[in-house]
Amino acid sequence: MKDLKNKVALITGGSKGIGYGVALSLMKQGVNVAITSRDEARAKEAAKDLEKAAKSSAKALGVKADVRKYDSQQAAVKQVLSEFGQLDIVVANAGLGHFGSIEELTPEQWQETIDTNLSGVFYTIKSSLEALKKSEGYFISISSLAGTNFFAGGSAYNASKFGVTGFTQAVMLDLRAHNIKVSTIMPGSVSTNFNGNEPDSSDAWKIQIEDIGELVVDLVKMNERTLPSKIEVRPTMPPSK
Q1: DSSP string, 16-75
Q2: How many C-beta neighbours within 10 Å does residue 179 have?
Q3: Which 3 state secondary structure label does DSSP give 226?
Q4: How far apart are CA 165 and CA 185, in angstroms?
Q5: What tens digit of pLDDT does each residue of 147-204 get?
Q6: Helical (H) or strand (E) element with 157
Q7: What is the spatial order of strands in the sheet that 89-92 belongs to?
Q8: What are the structural domains, with CATH classification, of the chain?
Q9: pLDDT per residue over 31-84, tens digit each?
Q10: Closest CA to 209 of 46, 41, 87
Q11: Looking at the chain, which runs of residues are DSSP E strands?
Q12: Has this prediction a pTM greater than 0.70?
């Protein structure tokens, strides 16, 4: 996809954080984007903000959807196709984290983590598969360095991201025959409000959301013969411990 103008992207959890950064970077390349959120008002407001910030002819569509529900993801894809007529790029980004010792982790927290971070990726690719076959498009999941590196208090999050990494790599092998590219991006510390804190100057050392956005643009513009299937991304210089 060397020329991205008028391509169409669906980004789950795109109203803030990494998803928003990816949407903005794609729109600057002329890509029309649909961003999802469980909060419809937030999705629509973020879409308006994206159109102002992108300063391009690209359009943004805010869609209410819940990645934990297959029918909700199917409806989101249907809405994107109705609005734009095609789907070329899908970024499965929506995620959350519950952290704490296994002694403290509740069954409800476990289920929400797995449903959102892992099953949500499955529902997203499953819902968009036929559209991506038609466009010979690109599917990207946002995993984490926690998808290969475990840590205390991270049992649910580690399990979900280990799953995303393995799932996406298997899907990559499944879909090559359809000329669909599949990659997973595994960021380390990113400056977002993931843990409930708004980013500030103390986060300057972290990966910024626009950095992940630029990486997505680089991936989808890469020569068709080459596929970076799994990309680990780290801050260049984290603080000394």
Answers
A1: SHHHHHHHHHHHHTT-EEEEEESSHHHHHHHHHHHHHHH-SS--EEEEE--TT-HHHHHH
A2: 12
A3: coil
A4: 9
A5: 999 999 999 999 999 999 999 999 999 999 999 999 999 998 888 766 555 666 678 8
A6: helix 155-175
A7: 60-64, 32-37, 8-11, 89-92, 138-142, 181-187, 230-233
A8: 8-233 (3.40.50.720)
A9: 999 999 999 999 999 999 999 999 999 999 999 999 999 999 999 999 999 999
A10: 46
A11: 8-11, 32-37, 60-64, 89-92, 138-142, 181-187, 230-233
A12: yes
CA distances from 50 to 59, 82, 109, 198, 209 (A): 9, 20, 32, 19, 14
Place of tokens 């708004």: 198
The tokens of 231 are what? 């990309």
Q: Which two tokens stand for residue 89?
A: 């790029």
For residue 139, the one-letter residue type is F
Residues with a known catalytic role: 157
Phi (first) and psi of residue 25, to 5 degrees = -65, -40
Strand-pairing partners, residue 63, are 36
Q: What is the C-alpha separation between 152 and 172, in angstroms, rounded?
A: 30
Write the DSSP symbol of residue 116: I
Tokens for 141? Answer: 């999941």
Helix axes 155-175, 107-114, angle to 10 degrees: 20
E strands, 54-187, are 60-64, 89-92, 138-142, 181-187
Q: Please choose, from the candidates 120, 26, 13, the residue with its C-alpha nearest in 3D space to the C-alpha of residue 69.
A: 120
